[in-house]
Write a structure and sequence with these properties.
This protein is an alpha+beta fold. Helix content is about 50%, strand content about 20%. The chain is built from 22 helices and 25 strands. Strands 1, 2, 3, 4, 5, 6 and 7 form a 7-stranded antiparallel β-sheet that branches. Strands 15-14-13-20-19-18 form a 6-stranded antiparallel β-sheet. Strands 9-8-12-11-10 form a 5-stranded antiparallel β-sheet. The longest helix has about 70 residues. The chain is flat, with a radius of gyration of 53 Å.
Length: about 850
């Protein structure tokens, strides 16, 4: 990156980089600190607001609570003094209802005959119903007071809660029709207990409109915060948006999830439809169940429209049921976790804080008394408003840093220029020195620092260089000539090394192709038009013939077709062995084979043929032959010795390849069954252990199938051994077609065969075995079309354990095969196997 950059630029860049990084780091620290402080202030404000509203809400509800408690005390006193007649109690309730603006209804309900023992006397009275039980419901709506009798109240939560606990009870918010108008209210219930016996309750119902007004105008800090009120069961009592009324934390969380991320709407629709399908109406007479089901269906329809057009359709939260909301929250595990934690905190009356949807929320419990379940107030503050001031500080600090960096960069540029100018002058002079201008005047440097020292060194260097130039020029011509020859020898040596490495490491199948390419490389290295390698062979007539092993000729393809051409050395090169032994100052001689050119079509296009004798094991193995289009071409001694070494390596490789080919042929014959062409038992014992060991190492399963042709002795006895051989070959073809590249298939002996399936579990092995059973039943031979035969199979499969052996596998398969024959043959028996 800086290779072609000037020193001044490098110095300026590096120092500026350090300054920029330092300022950015400082900016980052200041910005984060301001953000943290802003968050701390907002969090503190939120907690203070939550505490404040919890007190106000508690005070709002406390008045209704005190009224109920006071009425309970009055009624209890009247009863204990024998003055509790029904008209008196009704007048007290009416007067209290007129005086308490915050209460919309009173209910006083006594156990049967526990007030005055006159329930039978009042039975059928419009005020007391058919039972005559004292349980009137007095309500005030638009200045009008109305009363109606309450029936079937014993199982109502508000009545049973106070009766069973014997303590005051506050209900969750509920809608109740007061004089025909649905009103969201809560009831504060006090039990009337005399001498330890529960005789009834006094309940005051408070409309939650005042709480709604309280949360609708919360924004005292100017941060855009809003407040929610939750009952102990996690239901919204008050919220700035009316649609949140009477909805659980789960429902509001699911709604907020879909509103924040419309991309989840399609998945949510699938879950909603499944919920409707899986939760039908259990009791058509239960109005609550019917309403909940209808709401779920309506919300699913609303959600479908929202999934199609999220910008034009508004989700209706009032239709979302609590059960469906819990299912929808599966789409967002984090929201589900937060909803569960918030619900638990509200139920337990504990504080809880969370940051979600860019809001910081604090849940603060509201306790009305030790006996009642607590409610909670939640204050939500938008984080964008909290961080507004800190972001302004961040931008201000960043602008200041940019200005400071620009000023510092200017100062650094001036300093770097003054420092580097003398160095640049010296560099310019050094460049002229490099061009051979050693008489250049150095600019004066008055300082005694490193630059001054460098200037003096340059002067001394120029004087020394001038004194050496003349000496170097005298050797230049000689060095150039020697260098050209060394380069040529180096190219030849590189080519021969490449040939040596290639030919000694090549695989047997590719040997002849690589041999031909090696000859090409040698030929090109010495500018030959053709290269051959010959191998000497002494015939029975006592003559030595040289056989052409491989030939390369420039600009020709398929030259190897002339291999195995035999050349009578005594005829064309009389006394060749004596000439090859002659030495000169540089090594063995190179023979002139020009006499051969006219006799062979292979060499018609050449005018020089040079034969390089190759000695192996103290005898002449053959020749490396170079052909040239030029007449009387000569190789230099150092070239010939390099090439001779490569030729002897080629000869050694040819011998090694011939030996390997013979060994491969012998090994193939020794491990192959001559009748079926399958691996024989010996070959199986060579190949199978490697497959078995690999499966045990990799912990993958393998299957071993042991086959035995049924009643094969009868086949030989009845039809003869030649026909029996045809049966064996036919079966061999069947299992060979079921054998994969990494499997081992063999004729184990006689009519017994083994198939070892690599990476095959019991199911795959059984499928293969049953397929072979079926195929064998349909095998027909041309000699006897009506003849058929079957096979019995024993199988073992599994992952080899550390203590298992291949012989153990074979023995288990053999045991299973024995069982197959004992059970009637023509079947598969699997040996039980446990790798442990």
């Amino acid at each position: 990156m800086f290779k072609n950059t000037s020193l001044r630029t490098k110095l300026f860049f590096m120092v500026t980089l350090v300054v920029v990084v330092s300022f950015l780091f400082t900016t980052w620290i200041v910005s984060n600190r301001s953000i943290n402080l802003a968050q701390d202030d907002a969090f503190k404000l939120t907690e203070e607001m939550a505490a404040k509203y919890s007190y106000e809400i508690k005070s709002e509800l406390q008045a209704a609570r005190v009224t109920s408690e006071s009425l309970m005390t009055v009624f209890k006193t009247l009863i204990e003094n024998g003055e509790a007649d029904r008209d008196t109690l009704n007048n007290i309730l009416i007067n209290s209802l007129k005086q308490k603006d915050y209460i919309i209804s009173f209910c006083v309900a006594f156990e049967p005959n526990k007030l005055d023992g006159k329930d039978a006397e009042y039975a059928g009275h419009p005020l007391y119903g058919e039972s005559g039980r004292y349980a009137p419901y007095w309500s005030l709506q638009d200045g009008e007071i109305d009363v109606e009798p309450l029936t079937d109240i014993d199982d109502e939560d508000w009545y049973a809660g106070a009766r069973d606990s014997g303590a005051e009870y506050i209900t969750d918010p509920f809608f109740y029709e007061v004089q025909g108008t649905p009103v969201l209210m809560t009831s504060l219930v006090f039990p009337i207990i005399i001498d330890g016996e529960f005789i009834g309750i006094v309940s005051s119902d408070m409309a939650l409109d005042s709480l709604q007004e309280m949360v609708s105008y919360v924004n005292t800090s100017g941060l855009g915060e809003f407040t929610e009120i939750y009952s102990n069961s996690g239901v919204v009592v008050a919220h700035p948006e009316d649609q949140y009324f009477n909805k659980s934390i789960y429902a509001t969380s699911a709604y907020n999830m879909l509103a924040a991320d419309p991309s989840k709407a399609q998945q949510a629709l699938t879950i909603a439809n499944e919920y409707v399908e899986n939760n039908p109406i259990a009791d058509e007479e239960d109005e609550a169940q019917v309403e909940e089901y209808d709401n779920a269906v309506a919300f699913a329809s609303n959600l479908g429209d929202y999934a199609q057009d999220s910008s034009g359709v508004i989700l209706d939260l009032t239709l979302l049921t609590d059960g469906m909301a819990r299912e929808l929250l599966q789409l967002d595990g984090e929201r589900m976790r937060v909803a569960q934690e918030a619900m638990k905190a509200v139920e337990d009356g504990e504080s809880y804080t969370v940051t979600q949807d860019d809001y910081y929320t604090v849940y603060m419990p509201i306790r009305f008394s030790e006996a009642t379940n607590p409610w909670s107030v939640a204050v939500n503050v938008p984080m964008s408003e909290v961080l507004l001031v800190s972001n302004e500080i961040q931008r201000y600090v960043l602008i200041i840093c940019i200005i400071a960096i620009a000023i510092i960069a200017c100062i650094l540029f001036i300093i770097a220029n003054r420092i580097t100018k003398p160095i640049l002058n010296l560099a310019k002079v050094a460049g002229q020195f490099g061009e051979g201008h050693f008489d250049v005047e150095l600019p004066p440097v008055r300082s005694n620092d490193e630059i001054g020292t460098l200037s003096g060194a340059f002067k001394g260097m120029a004087e020394r260089i001038n004194s050496l130039i003349n000496t170097l020029q005298n050797y230049a011509a000689e060095l150039e000539e020697n260098n050209e020859h060394l380069n040529y020898l180096n190219e030849t040596l590189v080519a021969t090394n490449h040939v040596s490495e290639t030919i000694l490491n090549v695989e047997h199948q590719q040997f002849h192709d690589v041999l031909n390419q090696s000859l090409r490389i040698l030929g090109e290295s010495v500018h030959a038009n053709g290269v051959s390698i010959w191998e000497n062979d002494k015939h029975s007539d006592g003559k030595v013939y040289s056989r052409v092993i491989s030939t390369w000729i420039a600009n020709q393809a398929g030259v190897n077709a002339v291999a195995d051409t035999a050349i009578d050395l005594d005829r064309y090169l009389p006394g060749w062995d004596e000439q090859a032994q002659k030495k000169d100052g540089a090594g063995s001689s190179v023979l002139d084979g020009s006499a051969i050119l006219a006799e062979f079509e292979l060499f018609h296009d050449f005018r020089s043929l040079l034969l390089m004798p190759l000695m192996l094991h103290d005898s002449y193995w053959g020749f490396l032959v170079f052909a040239y289009a030029e007449a009387e071409y000569q190789l230099k001694n150092d070239e010939s010795e390099i090439l001779r070494s490569s030729g002897m390596m080629l000869a050694s490789a040819i011998l090694q390849n011939e030996t390997a080919e013979s060994l491969m042929e012998a090994e193939t014959m020794a491990s192959t069954d001559p009748l079926t062409g399958l691996t024989n038992r010996n070959g199986f014992l060579i190949k199978a252990p490697a497959v078995y060991a690999e499966c045990r190492k990799e912990k993958v399963p393998l299957t071993l199938l042991f086959f035995d042709l049924d009643h094969f002795k009868r086949v030989n006895d009845e039809f003869g051994h030649p026909f029996g051989d045809e049966v064996l070959k036919a079966f061999a073809r069947v299992i060979e077609e079921e054998t994969g590249e990494r499997d081992v298939c063999c004729r184990y002996g006689g009519e017994e065969f083994i198939l070892l399936l690599n990476n095959s579990d019991g199911a795959n092995g059984k499928e293969t075995a049953e397929r072979i059973l079926e195929r064998v039943r349909y095998v027909r031979l041309a000699e006897k079309p009506n003849f058929s035969f079957t096979v019995s199979i024993g199988m073992v499969a599994g992952v080899p354990g550390i203590h298992d052996t291949l012989n153990g596998y074979i023995q288990k398969a053999d045991n299973a095969l024995y069982a197959a024959k004992e059970n009637g043959r023509d079947q598969l028996v699997v040996f039980p196997y446990d790798a442990k």
